[in-house]
Amino acid sequence: MISDNLKKVYIFSGLNDDEIDRIASIVKLKTFNKGDNIFFDTEPYLGFYITTAGLVKIYKISKDGREHILHIIAPPNTFAEVPLFENFGEEFEETYRYPANAMALEDDTHVILVPARKFRQLLESDTKICIKLVSGFARRLRHLNHHIEELTLKDVTKRVAGYLIKEIAEPEKGQTHSEISLAISKNDLAAYLGTIPETLSRTLKKLQDEGYIEVDGRKIVIKDAAGLRAAAM
Amino acid sequence: MISDNLKKVYIFSGLNDDEIDRIASIVKLKTFNKGDNIFFDTEPYLGFYITTAGLVKIYKISKDGREHILHIIAPPNTFAEVPLFENFGEEFEETYRYPANAMALEDDTHVILVPARKFRQLLESDTKICIKLVSGFARRLRHLNHHIEELTLKDVTKRVAGYLIKEIAEPEKGQTHSEISLAISKNDLAAYLGTIPETLSRTLKKLQDEGYIEVDGRKIVIKDAAGLRAAAM
DNA sequence: CGTAACCTTGATTAAGATCAATTCTCGTGG
DNA sequence: CCACGAGAATTGATCTTAATCAAGGTTACG
Description:
2 copies of one chain form a homodimer. Chain A is of the alpha+beta class. In chain A, 39% of the residues lie in helices and 24% in strands. Chain A has 2 domains: 151 residues, Jelly Rolls (Sandwich), CATH 2.60.120.10; 78 residues, Arc Repressor Mutant, subunit A (Orthogonal Bundle), CATH 1.10.10. Chain A has a 4-stranded antiparallel sheet with strand order 1-8-3-6. In chain A, a hairpin with a 4-residue loop joins strand 9 and strand 10. In chain A, helix 1 packs across helix 2 and helix 5 crosses helix 8. The longest helix of chain A has 27 residues. Chains A and B meet through helix 4 of A and helix 4 of B.
């Protein structure tokens, strides 16, 4: 049921059934397999997306083929909302493009497409969704700020250590567990951390040799969280 | 007059005099000299700021003292709005911090402080400001996306060339003029472009030797815009 | 089993940071 | 008006990090 999925999405929480149904009536469901591109940054902007299952990466490619991952989107979350606000207030234009590429990282990745034109009409009459959207944007801005800080002010070792530290922190439970199972491939992790697979591999080995972690494929056990935290600073 | 300044600010455009006055009544004016810090990322969050004169840099410092500039804020613009939306809906907490440092880059930099607590109340009742805020955030997200793309996928030469190209583009007039007068010091420009002054200096010289530009202090003349554009890709 | 995608390891290279030393610029006070 | 000094910018020499290039090894899956 579409409505049930929509209710779980951050920006729609707090809406009543009627409002949810209104949104459900304008959306389209899509399913992708691992490696499928959901959109390219060259395509005209149709609307934003919501993940309901699977995993999505948002990434850019340089002219010579290098890739950098900006976000990993796990359900239930939205992506590609930014172009909704190109010249908000004026007529929506057909010439807007997606700001980056999006690819499914797992088979059976389900997404919901919310068409821009119709959603914009709805948005202008609904202040609740608007506040949710600002909050979501604020969260994303914080993430990008942090991401830039990591990329520009820290070396690869610090970035890798910092990523692992963030992975074991479970903010809701207030507790940490010491084993990580990487959700994404090491190739993708390297592209997210602003490096290449070879360097990531060497860095993980170094952190292992120093006794902070133990690596076994995608499973990483944290042996010394305090030391790792210090290595990330 | 405060109200006149407020009207010029993006997120408040479209508000009527009454609404502007309501905001004017809760703000505080401040003036800073070149080099003065407006806030540090260690300070408790009081509210967001609006520049009305001068120039402000938003930056981060690494543990070993390296600096990276995230944004250069020119009037009339807002900055540090993101923490407004920490857990929006719940009670505003006193423990929030500014997400980065801010410093005035010119003498007589005027800013307006809009206190968080009062503004949040106002925001919940006013959908127009909310939409403006989302739009402003969207613009900033686009900027950060672009910034990350530049930093991670391009070398210093491409970043410098790209910056110059962006400087000569005057979107409103649809025309380009070929002379740039840098608004910020080369030290700051280096920190913004993710490099250091020495490397920036060498890169500008290289671009000059290749015939694309002519550098004379803060004045840079574009001799070959097409070539420079190609060098930025 | 066989093949392709993923990951690791080693040797080499290159971009840009660091270190050190001048030079340039400009505001201030004698 | 000139001299001084501080901050800004440049230049050269060297070093470090991480990318590149090349070759195997592992894993997963049809």
